[in-house]
Structure prediction request, 759 residues.
Amino acid sequence: MLQEETVIHHHAHHFTSANHEFEAAKQGMWIFLVTEVLMFGGLFVAYGLFRGLYPEMFHEAHQHLAVHMGALNTVVLITSSLTMALSVSSAQKGHKVSSVRYLVLTLILACCFLGVKYFEYSHKFHDGLLPGGFFTNTEIKSPKASLFFSLYFMMTGLHGIHVLIGMGVISWILRRTLRGEFGPSYYTPIELVGLYWHFVDLVWIYLFPLLYLVG
Amino acid sequence: MSNNSAVVQGEDHYLNHSRGLMSWLGTLDHKRIGLMYLFSVLLFFLMGGVFALLIRLELFKWGGHNLVDANTYNKFFTYHGAIMVFLVVIPAIPAALGNFILPIMLGAKDVAFPRLNLASYYIFMTGALFAVLALFLRGADTGWTFYTPYSIRTNTTVLLVLFGAFIAGFSSILTGLNFIVTIHKLRAPGLTWMRLPLFCWALYATSIIQVLATPVLAITLVLLCMERILQIGIFDPKLGGDPILFQHFFWFYSHPAVYIMILPAMGIISEIIPVFSRKPIFGYKAIAYSSFGIALIAFIVWGHHMFVSGQSELANFVFSLLTMFVAVPTGVKVFSWVGTMYRGSIHFNAPMLYAFGFLELFTMGGLTGVFLATLAIDVHLTNTYFVVAHFHYVMVGGTLMGLLAGLHYWFPKMFGRMYSETAAKIGFWLIVIGFNVTFFPQFILGAQGMPRRYWSYLPEFTFLNRISTLGSGLIGVGFIYTAYYFYRGMRSGAKADANPWNAQTLEWKTSSPPPHENFHETPVVTQWPYEYLPEDTSMPANLR
Prediction:
């Protein structure tokens, strides 16, 4: 199927075929995701270190996170991964309308995620549960609790930035899909954005238990 | 082995394919991007070099006086280190020479992602801009290592330098990613893995480190920026954080980064030695695989930077032991190069001279590294000039010698003209003698206990410090002279033909300079590139 239709999409001059170009792009994306894992890895190591140093503080501090909101966001993101996958598969089959529909759904779910995050963050700000030097909360008795919230904001913040970037690139491929640029013979960008979005989802799958369910 | 089609249409090449400033700034041609990197890196090298000379001038203590105050001196060595590490030695060989040569060596028309390649260049320049901008504000005085908690408290503009290094890191990551995919996907027909030139193997191993280690630096620098902006306290003992964690993170990147610097230089040496010995490379597989051995060990030795930082005794012991393992794959390479030269027909052209320079100086740097890996000795030598001398022998003696060897070797390919061989020999001796005069005394100073990064020193260290400063002046003269004869070569050197060194890797099978798409016809590879016959000991007559 792929081989027959390669003629339709014009590939860049240094590749021998559209499939050749697709394979290269996909390998590049996987390597990029490896770098992302290592970038988040630093934060996970810091988390592990401080949790080992201050286990009681982590236990007490995590009770100030809203588990139901975190759980809701987990469901939202997993669902958005599903809609993203369905959009990629629709694009591969040449079903433009359903591909667009699923992309829009993915965008809406991403907005929901950030909306919930907004309410969570404002609540934390209100309670003085802020990183490091700005921490003013007096309810938590364990010392050094500001560290937990430093980690919470750094980890969810970096993840949130990735969600924002994801929304940006999803909007970009939505535009290109609407222009009819993708079809069974060429769908590289939408496939790669899909990979990226699943990665963003996966990071959250780790963040949720580590931060919200730590006790 | 001649490729006539290249010669026939030799007039149209990548330098005159299109004209005007925008044809350079917006180019997707890896050769032009490579040259833009090269000239940018050389500009930063000049800047870093000026700071080096300022450091040495201060330490000369002319008439017992100080040139600058202590705070200014701290900024000098910070800038020298940060510029040289992040903007010169890390990108120099992969981003400049690698970009130019790798796709041609593979018989490809370009790297896998040309637009990403151009973006990497602009990301690099943006990062550099931030770092240099800080220079015009309140500078930075943390040293290039940004150790906490001082880097959190200092009132200099260290934030901009951190941000600059963070951005430049992405350029390094994306270049590594681009090279890995290029090597996997764009090899010419017949170019099997076991026929791959060793420079490509070296760049592959380098790229793996760039891709795996640099993201850790990125997150570390982000956290340090956040320390300064939001006081997150992760590295700040006052808020319950751990400054040693910063050192672990920092060296988890910055030790492998040393191999980002040295592996590509080793790749260049592996190309040059067989060509100028007219012999097949000895131990091809051993050299190729040892690059990966070095890359692997690179990730598990970072703790040797922290022997006196408060790590546990056990960790010190393990890191010390592991560090010594680096000497094994490195030794495999050095002995393979020596084995290649054995009974070869050696031609002392400039690239080969610099390869010799590499062998001598890098071996000294490497062996003193084994001294420093030894716990009892390191405790005495930590933070002394011995360490300074050691890593300059590795970085200048290794990376810079490799860069200069590669620049001379590929100069005819890049510009289609020859440099002056006599001038190159003079330049080589100026730089090598100047280098040894500068840094050998520093081994002695360090062993005698002179600490690094200090603005003043005890009177008994004066003599050796002055010798060292004189040597640095000689290096400076050597580099200015080198820049001069390269410029002359570019302007009015003798025309170079496609293969002036009678070498066998693919870049010599296309015209000099190469056409826009590197080859007029995609080359087909039928053998490995080191098939030098015993009776074929010749070089083109004018190059002997």
The domain at 24-212 of chain A is CATH 1.20.120.80 (Four Helix Bundle (Hemerythrin (Met), subunit A)). DSSP finds seven helices and no strands in chain A. Chain A has one domain: 24-212. Chain A touches chain B through 40 residues (CB under 8 Å).
